[in-house]
Amino acid sequence: MKNLSIWLPPFSPDYSGAASVMFDFNALTAMHDAAGCTGNYTGYDEPRWYNSEKNILCSGMREMDAVLGDDSILTDKMLAAIKSLNPELTALVGTPVPMLIGTDLKGLAKELEAASGIPSIGIETTGTSYYDRGIFITWKELIDKFARSDSAVTEKSVNIIGANPIDFVLYENMESLQAILKDAGYTVNFCAMQKLSTKDVQNLYAAQANIAVSQSGFLIADYLYKKQKQPFIAGYPVGEAEIAGFIRELQTVCTERENRVWGAEPEDGPSGSASILLAGEQIFCNSLRHALKHQYYITGIETGCVFGFYERIVQKGDTELRDEGEIKKHINDPRFKIIAADPFFKKLIKHRDNLDFMEMPHFGISSKFYRKDARQFIGKGGDDILTDFCTKIGRVQQ
User: Fold this and answer.
1) Which domains does the chain have, with CATH numbers?
2) Rounded (to 5) percent helix, strand, coil in the chain
3) Which pTM value belongs to this model?
4) What mean pLDDT, rounded, does the chain reach?
5) How far from 309 is each of 267, 282, 312, CA to CA, in Å?
6) Could you tell me if 92 and 30 are in contact, meaning their C-beta atoms sit under 8 angstroms apart?
7) CA–CA separation, 224 and 237 (whole Å)
8) What phi and psi values does residue 210 have, to the nearest 5 degrees?
9) 36-82: per-residue pLDDT in tens?
10) Are 289 and 283 in contact (CB under 8 A)?
């Protein structure tokens, strides 16, 4: 019962992250389930779904299909759909039932590719991890299948890695980052959340460095580094004043070919006296913390990681919040005077006169409920957020 949620909805799972990656391609994606997981993805976890013409199928598993393990039902449906839709590639996405019965999705993908002549990948998501893992697993399959290690590296060329609609409901954030890079003399070799093809994946290694803009981006960039020694910086500039420093750090990454994490500084000590809690996706929290510290000299900031805890991108004193019980206990710690998190977290807070809550909606938590309140935070768009923080800090200190 430890993972039971009473007040919080289930966070976006790995199969939704996987499907969101395939959304960018001319792909035929099949979610191997009985329709519930497919409906969860299209109805709650994909902000781009409505008014789109993307192809995603549901295998429509029934009890006897699971008991008998008849995989031909899935492959036959896919072959029929391929004939009418003519996709560039196909993907089979896993859900809890295929995990439980041991369905070999990678093996089925190889059979499907042999029968259709179209590239196919099997994505072994299980529904037991969060969306960032699903995004990483999917990109790992795409990289292994299509990326060319013999690509010539272009100087001052970068990939924006980990852009996804769950972390970035507003694509304006990616447009802002690309404009910042262009003004600094960089070319963007790759960025997701737009129309992609397998050729874009083939050319990933042509970039001099990667910018990981999310937790999933960190996992992908780290994998690219291990495969090809392609360096990365994890983070982005929140607020206009952060841009120059971020570009200098990116240049260091390109020239020294060493990885950097923006906003998680190992020399900082434990945050036992922290009075500000940023709870949510770690790369966003890190980037916001960097701006608050270096532009406004605000210290005592702790991040609460709700989508997983990756030690290489956290700062000493940051906390992993694995379930509703841990989240509720932590955010009610009396030392916190300001909490920035998804509005759903307010339901867990006991009333305190000296606490100020800053709403930072995250689609992976509250889905469409607060989509209209999504904010731009990369570059100049982040200045309003920083101003709000300073206002709240002044109010709390009075």
Assistant:
1) 14-146 (3.40.50.1980), 157-261 (3.40.50.1980), 276-397 (3.40.50.1980)
2) 45, 15, 40
3) 0.95
4) 93
5) 19, 8, 9
6) yes
7) 23
8) -115, 145
9) 899 999 999 999 998 888 889 998 877 776 666 677 888 889 999 99
10) no
